[in-house]
Amino acid sequence: MHYFKTGDLIAKRHPKEPSYLQIGIVIDDTCEDFSVKWTWYDKLFFMEKEEEIFKELNKAMLLSIKRVNRSANNQNLVMLNPIYFDEKEVQKRYRTPKKDCS
Q1: Is residue 59 within 8 Å of residue 74, measured between CB atoms?
Q2: Stretch 22-47: mean pLDDT, rounded?
Q3: What is the mean pLDDT of residues 59-72?
Q4: Beta partners for 11?
Q5: Taking the model in full, what pTM does it have?
Q6: Picking from 30-39, 40-49, 74-83, which range would have the lowest pLDDT averaged per residue?
Q7: Which residues have a Cβ under 8 Å from the Cβ of 80 and sit 6 or more positions away?
Q8: Read out DSSP for 4-67?
């Protein structure tokens, strides 16, 4: 898994299809975990088409801030756009954890 940093645009990938279920921005990161503010979700997948009540539930639950533990198996999270654009900086910062997080 990538070492997600504050400012990265990430997505939660569908487990069986080539699509995304949610897209969000990492708003905080520590050695142990990071926080994601989800900004978009797949309305068809999350049953928004079924009834009006699902719209409000989806907005409250799916567009919330979620804390993700780095040690958990988060294979369904992918980087869409890193905060850093320099390729050397991307390789250095995203492939290995911070030095003080050992």
Answers
A1: no
A2: 91
A3: 89
A4: 23, 78
A5: 0.77
A6: 40-49
A7: 8, 9, 10, 11, 23
A8: --TT-EEEEEPSSSSSEEEEEEEEEE-SSEEEEEEEEE-TTTTTTTT-HHHHHHHHHHHTSEEE
